[in-house]
Amino acid sequence: MTAAADAGPTEADWAAAVAVVRGLPADARVLLICHVNPDGDALGSMLGFGLGLRQLGVRRLQATFPGPPEVPEPLRALPGLELLVPEADAEPAPDLVVCCDAASESRLGGLAGRLAGAGAVLVLDHHASNPRFGGVNLVDPRAAATSVVAEELLNRLGVRVDAAIAECLYVALSTDTGSFRFEATTPAVHELAARLLATGIRPGDISRRVYDTRPFGAVRLFGEVLGRARLEPAAAGGNGLVWTYATLDDLARHDQPPYVLEALIDSVRCTAEADVSCVVKQVGPAEWAVSMRSKGAVDVSRVAVALDGGGHRLAAGFTGRGTADDVVASIRAELEKALVGA
Asked: Which domains does the chain have, with CATH numbers?
């Protein structure tokens, strides 16, 4: 990636994005899409931006994501959920597609086909690995969350960030900074959080819903999956790797939906003896969604990109195939290559 790309959007990029939105006809059909298995930043940025578009007068507006139309329970109180439609019901030929928090077209699943038939494609993202697949790309690898990019564009469009929009953007910002614990938590992040809180949203209530609410079945499931975690101190060039896996049978046995596993990486990454942590989650007979984290010694985005995924230096993911052991073997191999090329 070039230094210019690392620097984020130029003024020309921002102007182009504003022009695309401002140039929409009154009856424009707008489709917002976020990535598969949406997290707080994906949903929060998408819905917050969608509510902003509605404030601007856009009425033919849909939001969607690939796969089953199930919103994770901690995010079911987000404002703007009425904009969501199932993947199959999404507008086939929108005038504008806005892609939120998707590091690549592949993260859009079956909805990637909507891009070819759209009048314009606007990408809002903060993943360094993003190949800039839109017609207009607002990709800022320096941003702590996609919501940072979304808030800046809303501001340039003259949207008043009310409490509903603020709650969506705050959830997005909070979740992607690990509740303001990760290195991406800069003074600017806290300044944005302060502006959002000034609208009157209640951070205590939001945190309880997002972080402190989990079905008992999920608690039991976490205990079982953490019980099979494996530590490999010599992996990643001696920086250490800790990993575990969860199967579809595990989910069925505890009667839990797949999204509950998204929070599991936080319980694995705290392992003191490992810089790199992974959770390998089965999504099909021989298909696994992989979440990776680094404490700083290893760039896990290199591993993810090599395995057809994407992400950031400290947080990345990809889809693996084969058995769980096959997937972890590919991670081990790419970790060593990443360190050699560092």
From this structure: 3-211 (3.90.1640.10), 216-340 (3.10.310.30)
Q: Do 209 and 77 form a contact (C-beta atoms < 8 A)?
A: yes
Specify the 3-state DSSP secondary structure of 252.
Answer: helix
Q: Which pTM was predicted?
A: 0.88
The Cα 175–Cα 265 span in angstroms is 13
126-158 tens-digit pLDDT: 998 899 999 999 999 999 999 999 999 999 999
Half-sphere exposure of 160 (CA within 13 A, CB side): 5
Report CA 140 to chain centroid distance, whole Å.
14
Pairing of strands 60-64, 29-34: parallel
Beta carbons of 48 and 165 less than 8 angstroms apart: yes
Kindly give the pairing relationship between strand 276-284 and strand 241-246: parallel
Query: Quick one: CA torsion of 112, 116, 120, 121, rounded to 10 degrees?
Result: 30
d(CA 31, CA 40): 19
DSSP string, 317-342: EEEEES-HHHHHHHHHHHHHHHHHT-
